[in-house]
Amino acid sequence: MKTTHPSVARNPLIVHTFYLAGLIEEYGSGIGRIMDSLKEANLPEPEFKEEFAGFSLYLRKDYYTEKRLKEMGLNDRQIKAVMYVKENRSINLSSFKTVDQKMSEKTLYRDLQDLVAKGILKEVGKKKGRKYELG
């Protein structure tokens, strides 16, 4: 992933020293590498803030907490589905039925499709072998 942000060193002398010492490969590549690594690890994007006369980067271990999912307006079944995926890496309609046996298959399918529409889950595979993973 190539980011399209301007790269401005806050302290050019330190940057130059690190570059000469071989601690920096190239100027402006760090944020892109961070984003790629987080995506590869299935972790949420970081939050960047300019605060306290400096720059802060907040890394989140778990973006989809129950509290956050409730704030996003998900129903209890959808929250259970996301928690299941976090623990088991994926969910399909059959495994979702074991999470909530009271609901019809059609309702559970709609719940999964809504999670896909919201970008929380993504579909992997064709109809028969389709599973859902964190988006």
Question: How does this structure look, described?
Answer:
The protein is α+β, with helices and mostly antiparallel strands and 135 residues long. It folds into two domains: 12-58, no CATH class; 66-134, Arc Repressor Mutant, subunit A (Orthogonal Bundle), CATH 1.10.10.10. The chain has helices spanning 12-20, 30-40, 66-71, 76-88, 93-99, 105-117; strands at 47-51, 54-58, 121-124, 131-134. It starts with 11 loop residues before the first helix and ends with a strand.
Strand content: 5-15%
Instruction: Please give the largest β-sheet.
Output: 2 strands, antiparallel
Task: Using the CA coordinates, give the radius of gyration.
Answer: 20 Å
CATH topology (level 3) name of the largest domain: Arc Repressor Mutant, subunit A
CATH superfamily of the largest domain: Winged helix-like DNA-binding domain superfamily/Winged helix DNA-binding domain
CATH class designation of the largest domain: Mainly Alpha
CATH architecture of the largest domain: Orthogonal Bundle
Protein traits:
single chain; 135 residues; alpha+beta; Arc Repressor Mutant, subunit A; 2 domains; two-stranded antiparallel sheet; 6 helices; 4 strands; 13% strand; elongated
Write the layout of secondary structure elements.
Blueprint: H1 12-20, H2 30-40, E1 47-51, E2 54-58, H3 66-71, H4 76-88, H5 93-99, H6 105-117, E3 121-124, E4 131-134
In brief:
This protein is of the alpha+beta class. It is built from six helices and four strands.
